[in-house]
Amino acid sequence: MMYVMCYFQVLPHSDIRMEEAMEDTASASVASMDEDDSERVIHQSTASLASVDIQTYHESLEHVLTWMLEAEEMLQTQGDIADDVQVVKQQFHDHEEFMMQLTQHQGQVGNVLQEGNQLILEGKQSPEVETEVHVQIGLLNNRWEELRVKAMDRQSRSVSAGRVHVYKT
């Protein structure tokens, strides 16, 4: 848990409206999941239907942040788009797999945002905890959006590079 709090301190802070964060994630869908992921989503979904406790929220948040950090590292290690058409094709397929992982985890990110929002709306937490949760879901939403945009940008550049190679041959 200490790691999660340190992670939040390092993240850039910005003002985000709660409604915007929830609108962005309300349409979250999961294309496919492994068995462990589906169990977590079911657990998180049932938690969001009933009263959410702070411990469940923190566990869900920690799980999503851990995965998100791994995903950010994976995206960074993909490197520059190559000049060779065969390498570009392989990079494109590798990135497609990465995009599928993003899609698979999108619902989990949305669930954590919903749990955090519900904690705030219930009004059962202290003002300090509510403020902390508000900051956390804002940062999570920003971090998710940044990861998603970077991944889509790489996909776009990869497609463009593939087209350039096709026209050259």
Describe, in plain words, how this protein is organized in 3D.
By secondary structure, the protein is mainly alpha-helical. The chain has one domain (34-168): Methane Monooxygenase Hydroxylase, Chain G, domain 1 (Up-down Bundle). 81% of the residues lie in helices and 0% in strands. The chain is built from 6 helices and no strands. The chain has helices at 2-10, 18-26, 35-49, 54-77, 85-122, 127-168. It comes from Ridgeia piscesae (Tubeworm). Keywords: Repeat. This is Dystrophin. It holds the Pfam family Spectrin.
Q: How many domains, in number, for the residues? A: 1
Q: Please report the distance between the alpha carbons of the first and last residues.
A: 54 Å
Number of strands: 0
Order of helices and strands: HHHHHH
Q: How is the biggest beta sheet arranged?
A: none
What is the CATH architecture descriptor? Up-down Bundle
Number of helices in the DSSP assignment: 6
Helix content: over 70%
Characterize the overall form: elongated
Instruction: Pick out the low-confidence regions.
Output: 1-35, 38-49
Strand percentage, roughly?
under 5%
Rounded radius of gyration (Å)? 18 Å
Computed structural class: mainly alpha
What is the CATH topology assignment? Methane Monooxygenase Hydroxylase, Chain G, domain 1
Write down the overall mean pLDDT: 75
Organism: Ridgeia piscesae
Keywords: Repeat
Protein name: Dystrophin
Features of this protein?
169 residues, elongated, 6 helices, Methane Monooxygenase Hydroxylase, Chain G, domain 1
